[in-house]
Amino acid sequence: MENKKKKVLIIGSGPIIIGQACEFDYSGTQACKALRKLGYEIVLVNSNPATIMTDPETADVTYIEPLNAARLEEIIAKERPDCLLPNLGGQSGLNLCSELAQLGVLEKYNVEVIGVQVDAIERGEDRIEFKKTMDSLGIEMARSEVAYTVDEALAIADKLGYPVVLRPAYTMGGTGGGIVYNIEELKSVCARGLQASLVGQVLVEECILGWEELELEVVRDREGNMITVCYIENIDPLGVHTGDSFCSAPMITISEDVQKELQRQAYKIVDAIEVIGGTNVQFARNPEDGRIAVIEINPRTSRSSALASKATGFPIALVSAMLATGLTLKDIPCGKYGTLDKYRPDGDYIVIKFARWAFEKFKKAEDKLGTQMRAVGEVMSIGKTYKEAFQKAIRSLEKGRYGLGFAENYNKKTKEELIKMLHTPTSERQFVMYEALRKGATVDELFELTKIKKYFINQMKELVDEENALMQNKGAVPAKEVLLQAKKDGFSDKYLSQILEIPESDIREKRIEYGITEAWEGVHVSGTENSAYYYSSYNIEEDKSPVSEGKPKVMILGSGPNRIGQGIEFDYCCVHAANALRELGFETIMINCNPETVSTDYDTSDKLYFEPLTLEDVLAIHDKEKPVGVIAQFGGQTPLNLAADLKKVGVNILGTTPETIDFAEDRDLFRAMMEKLEIPMPESGMAVTVEDAIEIANRIGYPVMVRPSYVLGGRGMEVVHDEEGLRIYMKAAVGVTPDRPILVDRFLSNATECEADAISDGENVFVPAVMEHIELAGIHSGDSACILPSLNISPKNVETIKEYTKKIAKEMDVRGLMNMQYAIEGDKVYVLEANPRASRTVPLVSKVCNIKMVKIATEIITAPLTGNASPVPALKERKFNHYGVKEAVFPFNMFTEVDPLLGPEMRSTGEVLGMSDNFGEAYFKAQEATQTKIALSGTVLISVNNSDKPEVVEVAKGFEECGFKIIATGGTHKLITENGIKAEKIAKLQEGRPNILDAITNGEIDIIINTPDDKQGNEDDSYIRKNAVRKRVFYVTTMAAAKATVEGIKAIKNGGGKGVKSLQQFHSEIE
């Protein structure tokens, strides 16, 4: 490698989906840091705007473009990189690299692949090649054969005996696969798997359910030196996907000699496949006879490598990037081991990972865990003992549970009922087991049911016994020895207060009086002189977390585990706040428990505490570090739920006050303020009983929008059309109390929804741009596609929106960021809600408008401490010469039984951004980036409800002008043809054959426009949408999106697409 500045292309992993989350933002961002330090010029491609890696500062040139071979070829032709680093962008990055190699693009432009060889990707990912490699090494695998058709799969399954496992090649998160128990199941799952696989290849393998699942994270350099970074033991046995599985590092119940044997096999495999950098190797072991079989390897940084990095302090992605450039492990110095080739995992603590799911978001989705990943996020906790780490993980999840007992209604069930619930693994399994033990189930019984090892069930039983003993003395704080033992075993103050029925503050005060406090210890970061991050434990004698006295400190509360409604966007804000505070001369302290994120990277803040975001844990750190202030407005709902309690005990919350945030949530107070400011809102009321709700609905008229107060991501929101629907909703609503009522609003029909983000210092307010939603009001803002800057809103209304936003921010004395939601009905602007905090659109607005919103907000928030003047008056309105279109990405392919309809409850897991000089192309690119490309020719199916009939003619005309063949159902067909547009009629499902379903199944339809009826059609046409998802046909369920689709097709057909443009270039063209 001669040292002229080399240009390296890094492929990101795209939008956050189940199975591929923000751990790749973390690894990609880390790699960019490493390569920049080594003097490389970096070109980065990723379609996800919510990431730190797509910030214009992270790489030298950034392309926010769809991730596919055609777009990448354009970028390669324009940028001419010397090399490509594919193993940091998850499965997307690897697959694209293989594809570019096969198409000859890499050869044509002379691009060298570094880190992992193209043939190595094949040896690791292609099921046949992998098996061949294993056979040649004499390493055992589960017995299996490869099938290319359903019939082949049936024949193999007969030979192996049912149940069998199906694994499609080149996929991740277990997509398309599963365990099948009979011939019928095999037929349907295999068909799905063949379609999901890049190469139409599915592995049929013997079922090894109930074996131990063990993982090793191995790093190799170009000279073949290897180290094992981390040993991970999955506590759930095989049969649950590792992404859903509850696991520990190091291995707790696996003997030293078995670990050595696993390491020997892993080294052989990694050496044969010749990966440079990190590889994750998964093994299965039969606990009865000790037989070991390798399951698979991931020749890339993965979800497990993010976990392994955070569990051991070894920055795998950073080191992988350095090794890819030709350095070896001996070349990288480390304060603890001298050089990295001498590294070994030797932490004397236990790490637990626990997943977070979102089944409650999907009606009809079955809470069942299997070989297809279902989790949307995860937490990691560190403790000195298994019990302590386990209980810390439970309270990190933020499910309103601070311990294992009394979850849902499990405590009220009999032992028999609980046992019945344990026949199949679910997201609730640990909580059910806890109550089953309390009801007298034995360790042996639970082992037979779950195949979770007896050691872990025994540990749980000891916790149950200890808890039952504690509950003998309700109403008082336990004696010193008893409390000390409970704290050592991980019982939280809050949980003790719940089971003993006394205030949490009583326990805290008495505990401190007894002298029982947590202490902290550091985890050394490998490859650094002496960097570390910290965890707490009640089992540490002396505190080993040094407190610095130099600069004033500010503490940032992170956003906890990823979930639908609160994702990577909030982590993005926390990271930017840490950078801004550092520039302002503060020492930054970050608290978070999510191992996938950039905020929990060791050098994002000056000091990281890897801890649950609960009152007890945050206060302990606050008492120790004594910061001058705490920032709670960047981490989404998590820190906001703590802010008021923290303020009560004297913590200085910076920026907008917790009272203001509560004020915005209180509909009555907020409405009174809107009346004072003379700003219109849709009529509404607050209901505690069914009668209240019916009275309000009759007063303001149906349809109404109902939802609980104090939620993020539209949990439990619905549009209700009549009294019967309202009764059902109120009956199902849980935990409605006078201080947490149900909100009932008039539903604005056919209204354009829009939102504005604002930066306010309490006096001056700046709105960078107004975002216009493509979907109409009634669809959650997180799920709606949106255009930035707005396209169809009149200049007068844009002004009104900006003016209202400024008035409200001033009146509420907002200091920092605020997000406002509006709807325009007719020509009137209504305020829907105000969120005086960072929202999920912050990264989007920051990138499209080239404004560092979080940095400016942080300067405002800290002004009382720094005495600096406000940056807001200097901000100027600018003219944009481009459009950004955000589109949401949904996990409906993972929940095939769920109707993929959008509504007021948020269900997207991530987002993509399309950017262009014109709206049509930007919309087209955004759709392309979600991996469902809009067809430019072919057949369009149109079937719309009565209220959308007025607009359908215009849409049909548009498709006709673009040369599409149109087929339509009954009423729609009649209307289109009466207006002189040629269309064929097609039968709905219940109208005979051939019908819509046949046409979709036979691949005769390229685009589907299907808007459901409010009532009647909801059920009967969900099959259209479910099958569109299954067959990957582009579909839209709103007229607004249908019109945008026509615009997109026209833009591309009229030679839109003057080539790709970098983010930096778009920014330079803003006037």
The total strand number stands at: 41
> Which blocks of ≥5 consecutive residues have pLDDT under 50?
none
Q: Quaternary arrangement of the chains shown? A: single chain
Largest sheet: 8 strands, antiparallel
Distance between the termini: 42 Å
Shape: globular
- Rounded to an integer, what's the Rg over CA atoms? 28 Å
Could you say which structural class the secondary elements and strand pairing correspond to?
Answer: alpha/beta
Total helical elements = 38
Beta content: 15-25%
Mean pLDDT: 91
Helical fraction equals 25-40%
Task: Report on the architecture of this protein.
With 1071 residues, this protein is of the alpha/beta class. Helix content is 37%, strand content 20%. The protein contains 38 helices and 41 strands. Strands 29, 30, 31, 32, 33, 34, 35 and 36 form an eight-stranded antiparallel β-sheet that branches. A seven-stranded antiparallel β-sheet has the order 14-13-10-11-12-17-18, with helices on both faces. A five-stranded parallel β-sheet has the order 3-2-1-4-5, with helices on both faces. Strand 1, helix 1 and strand 2 form a beta-alpha-beta unit. Helix 25 packs antiparallel against helix 26. The radius of gyration is 28 Å and the shape is globular. It starts with 6 loop residues before the first strand and ends with a helix. The model has no long low-confidence stretch (mean pLDDT 91).
